[in-house]
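does this look right to u?? manganese (II) ion version
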Amino acid sequence: MADNQTNNKTGCESERGDLEENIEDKEDKEGEKEVSAASSNPMQRSSSRPQLDVSRAAIQGDFDDRNPTILLPNQSDDISHLALDIGGSLIKLVYFSRHEENPSDNWRKRAIKQRFGVSNVNRRSYPILGGRLHFVKFETGKLNECLDFISSKQLHHGGIDSPSWNAGIRPVENPIIKATGGGAYKYADVFNERLGVSIDKEDEMNCLVAGANFLLKAIRHEAFTHMDGQKDFVQIDHNDLFPYLLVNIGSGVSMIKVDGDGKFERVSGTNVGGGTYWGLGRLLTKCKSFDELLELSQQGDNSKVDMLVGDIYGGMDYSKIGLSASTIASSFGKAISETKELSDYRPEDISLSLLRMISYNIGQISYLNALWYGLKRIFFGGFFIRGHAYTMDTISFAVQFWSKGQAQAMFLRHEGFLGALGAFMSYEKHGLDDLMAHQLVERFPMGAPYVGGKIHGPPLGDLNEKISWMEKFLQKGTEITAPVPMAPPGTTGMGGFDRPSSKGHMLRSDASAALTIGVLHLVPSLEVFPLLADPKTYEPNTIDLSDRTELEYWFTVLSEHTPDLVDKAVASEGGTDDAKRRGDAFARALSAHLARLIEEPAAYGKLGLANLLELREECLREFQFRDAYISIKQRENEASLTVLPDLLMELDSMNEEDRLLTLVEGVLAANIFDWGSRACVDLYHKGTIIEIYRMSRKKMQRPWRVDDFDKFKERMLGCGEKKFQPYKKALLFVDNSGADIILGMLPLARELLRQGTEVVLVANSLPALNDVTAYELPEIVAEAAKHCDILRKSAEAGGLLVDAMVNAQDGLKASSPSVPLMVVENGCGSPCIDFRQVSSELAAAAKDADLIILEGMGRSLHTNFNAKFKCDALKLAMVKNQRLAVKLFNGKLYDCVCRFEPAAQHS
Ligand SMILES: CC(C)(COP(=O)(O)O)[C@@H](O)C(=O)NCCC(=O)O
Ligand SMILES: [Mn+2]
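got this back:
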């Protein structure tokens, strides 16, 4: 054991990390005492400094990594992965589950590491493992449900997926979990009795601020404005976040001036808050729950209860002081009427009047505080809001009205989880406190459309349970209760929602407007693409889905494609009964997501076409479809490889200029093999792969719809006397399998290699439609290399040809070194690419690249059509969707795009 520890120290020698400090702590006598005392009596443990058990710690991966992942097999999870905020009405839980690690690093990755080194992914000295951050809430009145949930997932012992749990290591006897809120005091004994855990109480204000700071810095589109029913996401500049006013609306209201991390002051508050609404509301309406009261307000008309300016001014505005006739002059003012009793008022109207009174009051006091302290921004959080449109609109109206438009109210998607997140952040050494937005990916699992912003019951376990739930839900509709997530009222089943339509109402019903919070996937190895000209202003999506007709069009496209996709997916898994069941469940889950998003496009955050296309792939993965197009991809690869030798011969017989044009034409023509496009799939019935390829090539008449070929040719081959150095390194973002890669992009790559340009083929990490993956590429390159010396030598130089290296003839080895051809994964599993989140190996490979080529509709039209880069960029695509062609350049189906953009000047 001691030997291992010494080894690890050597492995991390360059950095004196916390891990080492802990090793020393363990060697230190004082430390030893602390550890043993802690295990017998956890209350004596220093709460601020949990201990890591580093025995048998092992570096995962190469020892020469600068930031290797460190596995702690004996870490006994006293560094809990669970934190709670136990409030008066709700318990909020934040917990972390680790990704399953795949320790086997394949040879392609090793070659990349050797060439590019390991990127400096984590600035911290103790890299965190990838994982997921989950957000769950329960009613405080149903504490037992919450305890069952924790127990069923063993969250107090680090989760059932924790290494120690899997290794059958006995968990610590009395783990400590961080909690905030009054319930941390009130229910400490219950937690101890039921789960054997000790609650470590964290200060509530501290937690709220830590949670808000984390969200505003680490989650892109966390904050949004809400005016007149319109939700707009706001991009917060991390460097310009402070100071701000945080208004947390729980039972009561706290107003906190936040000046930095851990720097804050509670400057004000009001006792008229969520508890007031619920308390008064319950007395006045006899509602049984907060949500029921809120739901009632949906059908309310507050003018029946409130005295409006118009009531006083005979239906007129009081325009001189800016009050319209519909402004509330006096909340509940009409109830002074002596002729009416409580029973004469509709509970719906009372609920809305109460809601508006309280929201308005909070908005007004908040603004006055912001004014007093000179704060530009006000963020509202707390579960009183619940993504409720009237509440947010009323608060926004108050802030807008009193500030005369100078200040704006902003809301937070994770509104209710600030405290719990803050408590979670208070654990030391989990390393999550300095996470960046690009390391987090939010995913919306199957239950998201149903659960929405609602409280849900115990979790679903494995895939089979998930599928059963989908099936049962369809059969019984809303009757389904525990052990499945509770469905929001008013839903009938998959894809069929019978709640009142939003049409005709100014604001959507609460059930559809509620915010859905996904699971935050932590991928510490994701980075911002270093060649983006301006990451701050970069927007991947080209098409704006906030245009309703555009949104509806793309929803229809996706819905219509689903049956065919299900067929392919089921066939790819052998067409078994199990695969059919999963296919069915996938179709339902996808249509539920689509139905939810068409109701409330911002339900999952800012929505772009790339998100929709990725959601579909994620949904397939959720039901364990590994690669729906696998056999199509293989068939097309084989067919294309048979014509490659002839194509290469034809190319080699041409002069440089003709060859370059033929190569670019070839890329555009072969991009027709796109199984995500309805038009193309219809076309495939009309001929063989090779026939379609030839037909497509024949139709490549210039000028193309966007035609910068001459500019590209000039840069590549020069013009007259004007000559340029060949590019040093090109990143080729490849798209589809088959002809696209083999007859299109590989020959282009070969031309660059011939010119002495190092080439990196960048491909998807995970399958998406018929896109080629980084995993599949080496084999394809190896096959192609059999027909071509240039490819063979470069692939060998790039460490791509493992078998070839073994079999290579001696003569080949002795020949002059070639520029390398490499393959890197992009970190995506989507037909599009978001350059704010790419793999660290791509980021490393990009460092000295001076050309990028983006190929295909997903990567260069749906996304990145307008993106600017620090190096030259060539965007090549065939437009396989008529509407997109019209929208982008008034073009038509099968138009081609060849856009060449020299490096952005201002980079
Ligand atoms: C998903 C795709 C972007 C893939 O295109 P690619 O990137 O392979 O060129 C494309 O197939 C697409 O936009 N399909 C939906 C539109 C349609 O069926 O017309
Ligand atoms: Mn594709």
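The longest helix spans residues 347-372. idk if thats expected tbh
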